[in-house]
Each structure stands twice: as structure tokens, then as C-alpha cells.
Target: Sigma 54 modulation protein / S30EA ribosomal protein
Amino acid sequence: MLKITLTHEGSDHAAHQSLHAAVEAWAREHLGPLLAGYPGDLHLHATVKHHSKGAAKCTAHLRLHLPRKDVLVAHGEAIDIQSALAEAEKRLLREVKKHKERLHGQADYRRKARRARLRQLKVAQAAVPEQVQTQTRHGIEPLLPQLTRIVRRELAYLRASGELPSQDPSVQDVVDEAVLSVLAQGQADRPAETLLRELLREAFRVLDAEVEARRRHGEIVSLQSSPEQDAIDQAEAMVQEELYEFYQPDEALQLSDVVADDTLPAIETDATCTDDTSARDYGLGRLVGLPIVWRRVWMLAELERLAMADIAAVLDLELAHAERLLAHARAFFDAHLRQAGF
Model:
């Protein structure tokens, strides 16, 4: 049941009653259907004020108290009471819809938005001649391992920084949508460098859309479920993942595999090499603290060895701006390495 109270400052009793009736009618028509599934008593408090000074002569504040002590607030300003109240009501409806989306699991809404994007891309792809699609697929095929590696790394750091949840989207989701976007462009005879730039640009656009959706909707965390593995630990574990991707030990270990051979000469450790590796690992672990664009510029330049012109094209930046961001990222790492004693 929705209880409504109204505070109207600077008006007589008749105007107060009229506004109260108007708010009740609006709440029954618009809020009622949205709040039908909420348990317990709900309380909507409206405050309307007249001001003698300022461009906004009237202001309206709406506070909707929901179960679990959730409070949604909306504000409106206008030259008259009705317009100010209408603006506040419009904003409150938007807040209620967002709240319901969060309660119903905003990951479902992100997936719906992703499916809508994929449907549009498939329509555009269907209009591309089959010969052009086949040629583009052949050009994309050898670039998929590099694209997958970059997407996996970027996803790890976005999750470590709290920008994305741990499961959705997957690496394959991002790669598939990026490939579909490039196919839908319908351009033939593109060299590998151009295809890689387009694939990376589309992959980053997909990730940016997911981050924006996460920021807009927020995330509901269950208090009953077990906590997930720390995302920063996952990201740091990926620092040397390339070294282990191709290491496939035998299923059956022999004693000779695990016992040291005393007849072999001792291996001297290169202290300089060890220090360099430690510094590199420490620096990669600090990537979480970088702004997203800084990190992407640094990773594409230092890890993927792309030219600055290509990086600027991938990230839709001016060349000079991309170079400044790379300099900032390098200075960031140098400062942290010095602070850590490297």
C-alpha cells in the first residue's frame, strides 16, 4: 500500500488539497503498476515550495521510501508548481524503473542490450556480399589469437578495477561481436594491419558499452552466496600466463621428473635478469591503478608493439594525445618502481 503525504509551503488549504489529489492520481496511474510487486507499506512524501527570488519560482521534491530502507529521490524546478511537480514526477519514474532493473538482475538487461546489438549487426552483415565476407574472414582468422589475448587481458583488468563483473561478458562474447562488427562493415581487400585496427577498435567499443551499462545500472550482490575470487589476484596471475599456455606436462610423472640430477652442473642465476623480471611483474600488477585509456595505450605500445599511429586510430585519439598518454603511463610506472625500490 502506498501512503502519500504532501507538504506545501506558501499556499492556502484549498491549493494544498488540490495538489494532494493531483499527486495521488498520478501515483495511482504511474507508480501503482511499477510498485505492484513490492511488499509492505510504501511511503511517498512530496514537498513543494514557492520562492520569491531566483529564476525557478517553484521547486518540488519527491521522496519514495521502499522496503529495506531504500529511498528514491527526485527534484524538479520550474516557474509554476504544476511544471515543477511534473518534472520531479518524471525523474522519480525513471529512478523507480532503474531500481527495478537492479532488483531483477541488471546482467539480464545487459545481455538483452547485447542481443539487440547483435541483431542489428547480423542484419547489416546479411547485406554484405558473400564473397566479401569470405575474404574478410580469411583475413581475420590469423589475427584471432592476438585479438583474444588482448581482450582477455583487458577484461581481467576491468574486472580487477571493479568496472565489470567476473563472468559477463566472456572473452568469446567480446571477440565474436568485434568480428561481426568488422564483417558488417562490408569492406574488401583490407590488409592485416587495417583489419587488426578495426578488430581492436570494435572490441574496445564493446567493452566500453559493457562498462557504461554497468555504471548506469549498478550491481546487486547476494549476501547469501560465497564471495568470488579476488579480481586483482586473477589479473596479477595473468602476468605470465603466456609462458604457461603452451606448457603441457605428461599425464604420468616419473620419479626422474621431480628429483634433481646431482651429476649436472649447477645453473648460475643471472641477478640482473631476475631483477628485471621482478620489476616487470610488479609494473604489470600496477596496471589496475591506471585510467582505462592510459592502460590501453601502454599495453598496445609496450606489449603488442603497435605503432603510435595505429594505437591512436584504434582508440580514436589524436596522435599527439596518444603520445602524451603513453608518456604519462610510463612516468606512472617509473614512479611506482622507484617507490618499490627497483
